[in-house]
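Progress note, project year one: complex with manganese (II) ion.
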Amino acid sequence: MAAIFDDAIRELKKAGKILVVSHVSPEGDAVGSLLGAALALRGAGKDVTAYLEDPVPDLFLFLPGADTVTRDLGGKGPFDATLAVDCGQKERLGKGFCALPEHGVLINIDHHATNDRFGDINVIVPDASAAGELVYDLCVAAGFTITRDMAVNLYVAIHTDTGSFRYSSSTPGAFEKAGRLVALGADPWEISRRVYENAPARKYKLLAMVLGTLEVIEVNERGAIAALAVTLDMFKKAGADKDYADGFVNYARGIEGVAVGVLFREAGEGLYKVSLRAKGGIDVSEISEAFGGGGHRNAAGFTMPGAFAEVRAKVLAAIKEKMAA
Ligand SMILES: [Mn+2]
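Model obtained:
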């Protein structure tokens, strides 16, 4: 196991100034693996900048080190090395990063099977439940001390990306590492309370509106498609931030007999973010890739321009085609 990180570790140890980055619209794995890696490298005496294009969602502001994340790279470089975690495509690291002239050796550590190997060094392990698992492995291989603060971040990364250890990605390795992170000080109930028992009422107001859009479309013997939609107007009416709809697509998938759940989120004038969720029968990452996105077998997403009716028709047709195959 350790050998796959050899090149990455050699470059990180050699580097003085390191940039750690993850994807736009960050979720638990992006933030947790970013901060876990940043804290590890700071602990190893490196000058570390942790960067995200988009803000850390409120839900994850309690993570140790979240207050050190910057959204502005102006004047921060040049860097000797950049470590990208949980990101399948370079563009998903954001415009700010892509405009950076000197990011140094680009190290790409990820678990998306759709990763296009954009780094100078690529460690892509699709079997890993979360990028946080890989950051853990890297820290062990490099001999970095895993502090309680790092353990909290990496536990959150694994916990959220496995759907609280419900998804098929909940491998023995994921449980083992989570167990070791708990032994290192990550407190499961404290973390669950902050992540899952702490929702603003506005989120439920938004959810009520979104559930009102539910459509269940019977396709064939493989099951049905359940579709939900959230508009900018709904966000406004609920007074909700755009990340409040994260996870709503799971309500669509959670319905009996549904093979694919889909959420259309209006992201701007004539622009939709489409999230797909499956139960194992249909590989939604293939649908997502065909539309220029990425993801995993059971969870994928992409952005599509167009009017709602047009976007909806195209996406439903693609899902039906995949279900007919
Ligand atoms: Mn991930």
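The chain has a mean pLDDT of 96.
DSSP finds twelve helices and twelve strands in the chain.
No further modelling is planned for this target in the current period.
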